[in-house]
Amino acid sequence: MSGGTDEAPNGRTANGAGAGGGGAGRGTGRGRGTDREAEVRRLLDGRHPAVPAGLAAGAAARGIRLLRRRRILRRLAWTLLFAAVVAFAVWAALVQPWEVPPSRIAPPLEGW
Predict the structure, then answer these.
(1) pLDDT by residue (tens digit) across 11-20?
(2) Rg (Cα) of the chain, in Å, rounded?
(3) CA 5 vs CA 2, 10, 19, 48, 75: distances in Å
(4) pTM for the full model?
């Protein structure tokens, strides 16, 4: 406890600021910080608004619909990917793109 300030054991001064001083208007009675804090406290201490009766059930039903839609889209994507792989494999087996095509410039040399 140095410098003659009213410092609490937790390192805060009497106005609620930390060891750095200032406090940006909190707890000092100046600025709009205390007005906002008081308004928030008043709102939180007051009566809370009523929740509609079917809100939880509606949210659960919406969640189930979203999960079902995602599952269907995921299955569709995997099915399309599988079909594309099969189509590519069939095309590659028929066309055999790794083989060099015969030359059309000169006739093949046979019997040398």
Answers:
(1) 555 554 555 4
(2) 38
(3) 7, 14, 11, 41, 68
(4) 0.47
